[in-house]
Amino acid sequence: MPDGQTPLVSIENLRVEFQGEDGPIVGVEDVSFSIAPGETVCVVGESGSGKSVTSLSLMRLVEFGGGRIVDGRLEFARDGGVVDVAQADPDTMQAIRGNEIGMIFQEPMTSLNPVFTIERQMTDGLRMHRGLSAEAARARALELLRQVRIPEPERRLKQYPHELSGGMRQRVVIAMAMACEPRLLIADEPTTALDVTIQAEILSLINRLKRETGMAVLFITHDMAVVAQVADRVVVMYRGNLVEEGPVQEIFAHPKEPYTRALLAAVPRLGEMRGKSAPEPLRLVGEDEHRLTPTAPAERGPLLEVSHLTTRFPVKGGLFRRTVANVHAVEDVSFVINRGETLALVGESGCGKSSCGRSILRLSQPTSGTVLLDKRDILGLNDRDLRRAWADMQMVFQDPFASLNPYMRLSEQVAEPLTNYGLARGSEVQDRVAGLFDRVQLPRSFMSRFPHELSGGQRQRVAIARALAVRPKLIIADEAVSALDVSVQAQVLNLMMELQAELDISFLFISHDMAVVERVSHRVGVMYRGRLVEIGDRAQVMESPQHAYTRSLLSAVPIADPARRTIGEDMNFRPIPSPVFPIGHEAAPSVYEEVAPGHLVLSTAFD
Amino acid sequence: MSYILNRILSMLLTLFLISAITFAVTNILPGDVAMMIMGTQSNPEALAGLRETLGLNDPLLAQYGRWIGGMLTGDWGTSLVFKEPIAPLLIQKMTASGLIVLLSMTIALVCAVPLGVWAAVHPNRWQDTASSSAALLGVSLPDFFWGIMLILLFARALHWLPSSGFVDPREDLLLALRHALLPALALGLGLMAHLTRMTRATMTGILNQEFIRVARAKGLGEGTVVWRYGLANAVGPVMTVAGLQVGYLFGSIIVIESLFNYTGMGWLTYQGLLNRDIPLIQASVFVIAAVVMLANLLVDILYVLVDPRIRLS
């Protein structure tokens, strides 16, 4: 806090409890910090740190989730003097909410009421707080939509939320929060659910609005890279307590507390792998340094050869549910994965990277192309042989809670592939399962537990153990670490790299996170609108990107370094067009130009 | 528009299947129409002659064609028990039953929606427990039990309402409503319990959605948040369940109308079944199926009005 300035918000000894089945559960134990007018304070922490509870308390919305502010003061400077929000009556709170403090949330897809028009949702706050007439409120809504740079604002007012894209909805939500010119904007993970280019647009929008209106921002996030890009000051939280607080440069350059240091160490920073030939495990504080590290795979020949893979999904419509169009999910994609190598497929949502992974396993049936695993044609196999072939290629999914059966003990789930493929019998099964638990560094006592008794990272280890059970040659990891907290993500990534070094497994690593991809992969392929637009060694693609899309994607990635602020004041990326094409549409074949040995860039133009 | 057209087409297809099944099943039953008319002791030659006249010796498909043709053109045949044309008889009874079905649906919705919302707003508190227990009581007891209880209370003890009989609403609307009220209540209690639970479940889901939090963060009052933002989203699902319950109500009226001696569709179908009045049974099943489907079509059309997401697809 700069000296001599009255804080806008001053939180003192906040304590929030939730009603649990066996007495109260502490959500926030003891937190104090303040926000100056016009300042951006980032509260950062992993899940369960209490960062969202703190922001909801400031709006007194925490009560609707079963929480109770049991102690502390939440002082907010209003025009008429300072108010303690913790003691304020409902009428005062209603006058503050949406009027003096605006708030935006994580999920733009569900933040808007699906059955009301954008106009109704944008104007009801204005009419209530400002007493505006319908026309005046409508004019103000239009002005706001222009301010957040939504194209065709007049038309948007008449539309319903489902007619807008995710990025546009988040802009509407921000416009709604800005409607009454609040002095504080609380943004609770506002970009977590968004693609990286849209995230960059939203972050730059918040930055611009902040500068134009002089409002303060309380920014809640788990993402250190976002913190580095937007924060003036940082508050680090852990398990309901404030761990460390300071200016952003200070926190990143000289973190004082061990937890902050551990958190920062676990964050991969785009660009830090420059000049390194092989993936490198993340340095985890307090872990031994003698890890097995993957090396650049010697030329040991290809394991997986994918050529001209095309997958289309029919769009059904009309009276008789006939196919009226096709989604071109994967369009003429070719690549090779060598033994012991990790190829990363990156791209934004809907680019076809997951469909590509599923098509290789034939979990989605490809339309055409060939997939050779160890020279064996996967697409030509009958059902029985395909099932056998799956022993060589396994998949790890994003959400370990959804991919584990809640009614089965973990040992049974890891044993399933062993018995399914007849790989072990009798007491050998338990021995093998125990060995797999050791391998993924889970205590053997976990074997008799159920999925809900484990944390997210532990569950993902179980999913990996299950995939390893059949000793696969290839593991397709589809956003396998995206749902995990950074420190846990780092552990799981390190585990995967270790397994690769030890067992010579190849990975197809599907991810949207460029910094993680840079850390773990030997080679990188970038997907856009179903096509592979660029592929090459990690250094080639990340350090000298050639395709226009790769470049714009990389420019949008926030870097976890406050000294390298890349999020400008006004970022606008071209929206990704629809992959739906009429029946009979003949897509042009993918033609590549080899700009360097092994570095291919798509030269086919998109239509 | 194609959405509604789609619904109408699928409804016509279902109706055709129902008509075929009804016709087939009633033909498999032992004893045909000629036997019903002449009695089991009749002269075999006379019986054969009557069969020939009625066309019962024609192939089944031809008989079905004749019957469905008649149904579509308004010639529904003659009832064997009542010895009169079925069409006007069915229409009159359908009006009578329509009155109690509509009345019970209205009573159920008017009570269930506020109760369900009330419970959802106070999850796991006494309001929720009270509403859930009442709903459980409502669904676990059969409707004829409620019928008997209602007769005992309102007719026998309090003498407020008549315990039985039917009055045509065109003759005396008020009296007709008085006669329809108790059977409608007996039908509506179970339905109300069902809809309360449904409303509670739907609203609980909706109130946990992010847009509700956004509405609160805008500073809107709790009343607006729950009754406008929340309920607008619950209308569709609740309406759909209510529409499906119309079928269940037409099943229940057989017992309830007999209990209250209310001469509607249920009572008529029951008489038809007792006396093996095959033309009457066939026509009744067809008409009930058509009415239930029309009610659901109405729900589908209303759904388009309350949920903009359906309009596009």
Task: Provide a brief overview of the structure.
Chain B: It is found in: Cell membrane. The complex is a heterodimer of chains A (607) and B (313). With 607 residues, chain A is an alpha/beta fold.
Please, could you describe this protein's structure?
The complex is a heterodimer of chains A (607) and B (313). With 607 residues, chain A is an alpha/beta fold. Among the domains of chain A are: 1-100 and 183-265, Rossmann fold (3-Layer(aba) Sandwich); 109-179, no CATH class. Helix content of chain A is 32%, strand content 26%. In chain A, the strands form four sheets. In chain A, strands 16-17-18-13-19-20-23-22 form an eight-stranded mixed beta sheet, sandwiched between helices. In chain A, strands 6-7-8-3-9-10 form a six-stranded mixed beta sheet, with helices on both faces. Chain A has a five-stranded antiparallel beta sheet with strand order 15-14-11-12-21. In chain A, a hairpin with a 2-residue loop joins strand 14 (368-373) and strand 15 (376-377). In chain A, helix 3 (118-130) crosses helix 4, helix 6 runs parallel beside helix 7 and helix 15 crosses helix 16. In chain A, 49% of the residues are buried. The mean pLDDT of chain A is 90. In chain B, helix 5 (86-121) runs parallel beside helix 12, helix 9 packs across helix 10 and helix 11 (265-274) packs antiparallel against helix 12 (278-306). Chain B has two domains: 2-73, no CATH class; 87-312, MetI-like fold (Orthogonal Bundle), CATH 1.10.3720. Chain B starts with a helix and ends with a helix. Chain B is mostly helical and 313 residues long. Chain B is built from 13 helices and no strands. Classes of the chains: A alpha/beta (607), B mainly alpha (313). At the A-B interface, helix 2, helix 3 and helix 6 of A face helix 1, helix 9, helix 10 and helix 13 of B.
